[in-house]
Amino acid sequence: MRCLIETMVTDKTKKMQPSKVREFIRENSPLFWYIKEDAKESISLEFLVENILHYGNEKSVKRLFDLVGIKKVADIFYKQITGKRVNYPPRTVHFFDLYFRKHV
Fold first, then answer.
1. Strand, helix or coil for residue 11
2. Are the C-beta atoms of residues 31 and 51 closer than 8 Å to each other?
3. pTM beyond 0.85, yes or no
4. Exposed/middle/buried for 39, CB within 10 Å: 0-12, 13-18, 19+?
5. N or C terminus of the chain with fewer C-beta within 10 Å?
């Protein structure tokens, strides 16, 4: 598994700033309570999106969209909900499905 910070891209031309991603993960550290502190900054982008959309608040979701890009988050979300196992509750799937259909 590649490190989130090394692979994150906001759009086709601009690379994500690792310091901003680390700061974002630290700000939302309680959402990753079961992960060792030294391992939190190497979580995958898919895992970050899943946790923020599932457990985050409005501010953290907006910041995720700003850091990663709403289209990239939507792509990850749709990939996650079309697999065999869906970790999102039905209300979350419904809400973000409606949201992404309108805004992406």
1. coil
2. yes
3. no
4. exposed
5. N
Question: Chain-centre distance of CA 55, in angstroms?
Answer: 11
Query: Is there a contact between 48 and 1 (Cβ–Cβ < 8 Å)?
Result: no
Which bin fits 8, alpha (ψ -120 to 50), beta or left (φ > 0)?
A: beta
How far apart are the two ends of the chain, measured CA to CA in Å? Answer: 28
Give the whole-angstrom CA distance, residue 25 versus residue 3.
13
Domain positions in the chain: 4-103
CA distances (Å), origin 66, targets 26, 39, 52, 85, 86: 16, 23, 13, 27, 25
